[in-house]
Amino acid sequence: MSTEPCGEHPTVDPPLVPAGRPLNCIVLVKQVPDVSNIPEDAWDREKGTLKRAMLDSILNPLDLQALTFARRITETDANSRTIYLSMGPPQARETLIDCLSRVPGEAILLTDRAFAGADTVATAYSLACAIRRIEREIFGGDRRYVIVTGMQSVDGDTAQVPPQIAEELGIEHIAYAKGVEVQPDLAVTRIGPQGTEIVRPLKYPVLVTVTACMDPLYRAFHLAREANSGEVREWSAESVGADPARTGLQGSRTQVYRIFSPSEERSKACEFVHDPAELIDLIKTRYQAAGSRSRTVEGEPYNLDGKTPTYAGEFWVLAEREGDGIRSVSLELLGKARELAAGLGVMVGAVLPCDDAGDLPQELIARGADKVYAIEHPLLGEYLPMPYKTAISRLVCERRPQVMLFGATPMGRELAPRVAYACSSGLTADCTKLEIGDYTKGSLSLVGILKQTRPALGGNIMATILTKDSDTQMATVRPGVFRVPPPDPARTGEIIRVKADLDVKQLRLRSVAVESLAGKVSIRDADILVAGGHGLRSKKDFERLLHPIAEGLGRLLGGNAKVGASRIAVEDGFTTHDHQVGQTGQTVQPRLYVAIGISGAVQHISGMQGSEIIVAINKDPKARIFNYADFGMVGDIETILPGLTRVLDGAPA
Amino acid sequence: MKPIDILIVGAGPAGLAAAIRLRERLDRDGSDASVVVIDKAFGNGYHNLSGAAFEAKCLEELLPGWQTERSLLTDHVTPVERDEMYFLLRGAAVRIPPFVVPKRMHHKGDVTISLSNLVQFLTQQAEKRGVEIYHGYSARSLMVEQGVVKGVKLAEVGLDKSGEEKPNYMPGEEIRAKVTILADGTHGALSTQFREVFGAGRNPQVYSLGIKALVQFTDENPFGHNRVVHTLGYPSPSSVFGGGFMYSMGEKTVAVGMILGLDWKYGDLNPQLEFERFRAHPFIERQLHGGVIIATGAKTIPEGGYLSIGPLSAPGALVVGDGAGFVNMEKIKGIHYAVQSGICAAETIADAYATGDFGVQPLSSYRDRLVKRGIMAELEHARNYRQSFRWGLYVGTPLSLIQSRLPMRLKTHPDYLGTKRGARLRRKDLGRMDQTTFVSLTGSLHREDEPSHVTILDPSKCLECTERFANSCTHFCPGQVYRWNDDQIALSPSNCLHCMTCTVKCPYANIRWVPPEGGEGPRFKNM
């Protein structure tokens, strides 16, 4: 299958225009349910799922960041234009009015029954068609514009649509943007895999996805009045020249198979312990067992029983490098792919883009690969989205594996959507569970397919997704979900060297590293999070008692450990807001969450319930936090914490 | 942009009734004058909470045939068929025979509704008629120039905790209008400023706190349908004014709540714990057995009545609804007055609009219209009702029956003076719903790094308060905004329910509350 552009698509880009001409912005916005404020009656108590209609509708918070970001670009030139584009039902007009009340501009709502049921691929295609029409009709063919949008939406949370739009338009994508300079020419500050870097586009248009980084602009009353009486243009599928076969349900390559409650995945009963040493032991055993999320409901291995599987081909895993080795998530995926492929009796392949493969293929074989596809090229030494995407998608399109798995790392989340789009395949982001199974509905009968399960709506529901109308089933998987398989040096496998036809002229971004990421990890990225609440009583106690525990656990378990806080602890000045976990702080999903002196208000729970292992220490045995904990300790913090520290320091408690 | 002709501050029943009637009158008179409503809540009806037993006649006047339109409101209007009153003793409930209950307190013929749903319905009706409604804008001050109200100024936004301007800072916008209707509800910031400028009622305004929960049933609802129950007695000591209620809200939901007069004397009275105690009473618990609490909330009620009502108009402005104090405590009702006062204000302005004069003379006919409808007479009849209970339930009950015939006017005192030195209730925690859960069920939310919208004016008084009044703010606030931390009050302003209790109940009148940024506060749904 090939990807045909839907409108005119100039093959030769005009040369980069000199600075000074206005730079226009297209801001992509989405109306989403407000998952930060879920009323109690929005829960369907029987099914354990959320009734979306009961939630408030808001402008996706990261799109609000994007709007603020775009304003930085357009405010430098009075002739710069701001176009808001949204796709959704007619009531999504409210969201565009919201945008216009913050920064004036022109608003377009892409709305049509034909778009209903679109997954990320169909959404990206439809939006790309509208962007082409904006370029043609509103910008008069001028390609000097930037498409700005949020990294992801709070409802879908896949971060797939923007890179897929970039793929459809054949343009560069700058992800994780957190700042921008416009003079002398556009320079975007972004968080790259190695640290902060400044990226300059060499060619327009370019697509920028923005992370939470700015104080969002407010709605102004006088602008709201103007917006309210102003115009929001409505564009249909036909008006943007979208191919009906590629929009809506028809154009989608994934479908939801089942929605269920996250509580089905984990049966929580808090195990209370009294001895600090026992607690540390339990934590250590559970942590090192890894993948408790998948382990809880491990079914029987799949058996074909003589049926003919729907898909044919190998199971592939992208091998992501880290330093001189392979990132552990790639090894985890190799282990899982090995197990799943066995049920279908097919081979496992590892795809290794690099400048020089060295010993890495051996390592990959020892961890479960039957074949290693080493794509070697000087441009593949460092991670660059375009050369990587080009090299990998060519290989996938040529050899058509039945499954392709990526780690849900910053690189995987940027790369996988583009590879999937280029290969006309469905993709499911951030899976926490993978299994092989059959699916029958009406005349449709699928055998031996990959069932991909992921959290959605801010972790409040789980969804199992199936790939359709694709040769390859693709998924990204969160790190730490599966176990790293032990190496088997006796394993043998085939190493296939693949030629990559890449040219330095294809690079359309220039980036300069400005700051290393080391030592600057947000609490969202921590493996282990030790959070303190009001029970800590003072800032001094917070620092004196909490930090040694975090450091000790980090040492013991070999993970990245950070200190977090409840809202009250932040209000009491124990620490700063960037450490706050919960509804109005950050949503975290570490492998280990230790809540100390936190009672467990709903607002806090919603920010940490996705953590893999939860430990609670509180003086009140009735505290709500224990309802969510795997392990609990009741008692005075002043005595428990020093005891834990002593155990962690190796001394007898 | 078209200038604003009529600005209405507050999208509650009073403000929206005014907007609907105005739009209709202006259209009929061939005027395209603009009618604009602003409200500080995030969405329709999110700051509106009441019981509510409602005299629906006024809606028939405002929107003839309203019941035939399908909406969240009309789908859930529940006619009252059974109306009972009980006196609760510890462990038992005694039915008060209907013939003993004063006629004005009967509810047959009323309907029970959710006030937030009524407001949603009115919003839709107003928008349909061309009223402009903007939510999420917080009016902070009244603009008065040379004795004429010129409009309002919105809250500035984008300050950090210490009051420094952040990159997204925006100064408070001025909204100017030919005439402004203040419909900002109980202890509204602007109607309060209006009284400071143009004078207050003869008596100081006094308040009660209403606290409420919605209980939802999946199976059988033991309380039953089309029923209202009012209670007196337990858990309140006889010195505390108020009572409890349970109302059917459709088939599967029951509203349960309590009203507590804010002149209570106990420094440590915690309304939320009293509410837990009330629901733990065997009679109440039996009615609510098997239900799940899906929403909670609290709000004050202005109860001073006739004698606490101040001037209702000034050049360029009118005051309507709870903001004016239109509540009849004899009936414990005010929503129908809110709607009717809105209608009267609209008629007044529409007439004045024809002449182009919004000065004292034309706007003062607003009061005449209220008189003509008999609203003022009803309120006057109840003028001493609330005050009768100053001496507790046992004096108040008989006194309230003859209050209208008392020759003198009974005085009220600001509620904070009611708190008595050393008076304590010393309740044990029953270990039921905790306060954080109660607060979370209100959906309240504020940006946490904005400057606190509640301020302790003189923190040194709090130390003295500990011994005298048990730091009553740490008890009386249903949002748990105030905590005692070491030797001072620590604030959690983001918990605030906008109920206004703190502004009237701090024993030292030492708390200042200003409207925070727009779009914040509780999100009452179906309340």
Explain what you see.
The complex is a heterodimer of chains A (653) and B (527). Chain A has three domains: 199 residues, Rossmann fold (3-Layer(aba) Sandwich), CATH 3.40.50; 215 residues, Rossmann fold (3-Layer(aba) Sandwich), CATH 3.40.50; 126 residues, Rossmann fold (3-Layer(aba) Sandwich), CATH 3.40.50.1220. Chain A is globular and about 70 Å long. Chain A is α/β, with parallel strands linked by helices and 653 residues long. Chain A starts with 23 loop residues before the first strand and ends in a 5-residue tail after the last helix. Chain A is built from 16 helices and 33 strands. A ten-stranded mixed β-sheet of chain A has the order 13-7-6-1-8-12-9-10-11-28, sandwiched between helices. Chain B is of the alpha+beta class. Chain B has four domains: 221 residues, FAD/NAD(P)-binding domain; 133 residues, 2-Layer Sandwich (D-Amino Acid Oxidase, Chain A, domain 2), CATH 3.30.9.90; 25 residues, no CATH class; 97 residues, Alpha-Beta Plaits. In chain B, helix 1 runs parallel beside helix 3, helix 1 packs parallel to helix 8 and helix 8 packs antiparallel against helix 9. Chain B is globular and about 65 Å long. Chains A and B meet through helix 5 and helix 14 of A and strand 12, strand 18 and helix 13 of B.
The overall pLDDT average of chain A reads 88
Name the CATH architecture of the largest domain in chain B: 3-Layer(bba) Sandwich
CATH class label of the largest domain in chain B:
Alpha Beta
> How far is it from the N-terminal to the C-terminal residue of chain A, by CA?
64 Å
Residues in helix, % of chain B? 25-40%
Shape of chain B: globular
Number of DSSP helical runs of chain A: 16
What portion of the residues of chain B fall into strands of 2 or more residues? 15-25%
The CATH class designation of the largest domain in chain A is Alpha Beta
Radius of gyration of chain B: 22 Å
Share of residues in helices of chain A: 25-40%
Could you say which structural class the secondary elements and strand pairing of chain A correspond to?
A: alpha/beta
